[in-house]
Write a structure and sequence with these properties.
The protein is an all-alpha fold and 152 residues long. Helix content is 52%, strand content 0%. It has one domain: 3-Layer(aba) Sandwich (Rossmann fold), CATH 3.40.50.970. The chain is built from 5 helices and no strands.
């Protein structure tokens, strides 16, 4: 059995109080939306309508929503091979994402990136990577660029 320290429990309570019920409801709605999207994507994949392979983010909705809600204006998103939820929490258009999955020109990468390579540079979403931990060197490069340009 896992036991949480009283300090950790108190920090959770403080965070919940700080966010407030409306923000928590919005975050829960985002998680439900991501789950529904992923379940539909899975159906289309099983029907053979999705090009390439697909790594769903079912069960990881809270990490995507929590991380996206902690970001600030101008931050960059680089995520892992199960990045659909992160893209959606970041504000990606589900229709463009689905178009990308299905190899359509209206997708984020004009149908060429597929499930694991959705990116939208205009919104600072630098994309996912099909290689586990493949985004780390990209993130290092982004950090170095920010440092060299002396931006936050």
């Amino acid at each position: 059995m896992i036991q949480l320290s009283q300090d950790l429990i108190q920090r959770y309570h403080d965070l919940i109080e700080t966010l407030g019920p409306e923000a928590l409801k919005m975050m829960l709605q985002e998680m439900h939306t991501i789950r529904a999207f992923e379940e539909r994507a899975e159906q289309l994949y099983m029907q053979g309508k999705v090009h390439g392979t697909m790594h769903l983010s079912i069960g990881q909705e809270a990490t995507a929503v929590g991380a996206a809600n902690a970001m600030q204006e101008g931050d960059y998103l680089l995520n892992h091979h199960r990045g659909h939820g992160h893209c959606m929490a970041w504000g990606a258009d589900p229709n463009r994402m689905m178009a990308e999955f299905m190899g359509k020109e209206t997708g984020y990468c004009r149908g060429r990136g597929g499930s694991m390579h959705i990116a939208d540079v205009e919104s600072n979403n630098l994309g996912a990577n099909g290689i586990v931990a493949g985004g780390i060197p990209i993130a290092v490069g982004v950090g170095l660029s920010i440092k060299m340009r002396r931006t936050s």
